[in-house]
Amino acid sequence: MTVIVVSGTGTEIGKTVTTAAVAAVARAAGRSVAVLKPAQTGVGPAEPGDAQEVLRLAGDGITTCELARYPEPLAPDVAARRSGRAQVHPSDVADAAAKLATEHDLVLVEGAGGLLVRLDDEGGTLADAARLLGAPVLMVVSAGLGSLNTTGLTAEALRARGVRQLGPLIGSWPSAPDLASRCNLADLPKDAGTPLLGAVPEGAGALDGAAFRAAAGGWLGPELGGTWDAVSFAEREAPGAPGASAH
Questions:
Q1: How much is the pLDDT for 246?
Q2: Residue 19 near residue 52 (C-beta atoms within 8 A)
């Protein structure tokens, strides 16, 4: 895969940290990596955004690209409208990712919020950009109560648009998972329609870069270049099993 679109079932669920983990593992394997952030919202002109956070965690040698930045923490179409700045369209995202793909082994496109958050006044979304690219979507999901519904809805939206889902990945696995989180290890793949691809531990984004890079491969499944194993993880964390940290 040359391009992977990183989306999720909502906001603040670990998309940036997941993107950094995938980037770090790919770099460790000797691949050239680019990270594209189509629309950065809620960040001022001089403040570091998600792309800079990926660099901090995944290390140097990664190309980053940001198409637009809006100061208010709103959906991209609304944030652009309120700021008076140009909106980003799915075709802009697809063109930028395709260009980066000619120069890199892997391009990661990190969305804003959930899959169907509007980018422009025409209703264009990250799903539309993925469809134009013919790229699979890595779905970052939450661990606990409510995740089954949002995971199922996101998977259904992808299927309806003819966009391939790479699989779900838990963006923040709790250090002390509750019953819902433990049960969801078995149920999330059913709602997504594909196996789990990994679990990033809660607090991973607070690690320094060296520690993050050393651990990242253990959070991602083989499909993403890592060593995380869904069966052994579920056996350890499922209801009735002694709890253990994903760290």
A1: 42
A2: no
Which neighbouring-strand residues pair with 5?
109, 137
User: What are the tens digits of pLDDT across the range 33-76?
Assistant: 999 999 999 999 889 999 999 999 999 899 999 999 999 999 99
Q: Is 190 considered catalytic here?
A: no
The CA angle 159-160-164, to the nearest 5 degrees, is 30
Active-site choice (15, 37, 99, 190): 37
Sheet holding 3-8, edge to edge: 62-70, 33-41, 106-110, 3-8, 137-141, 165-173, 199-201
HEC secondary structure over 39-96:
EEECCCCCCCCHHHHHHHHHCCCEEEEEEEEECCCCCHHHHHHHHCCCCCCHHHHHHH
- The answer to whether the predicted template modeling score (pTM) of the entire model surpasses 0.90 is yes
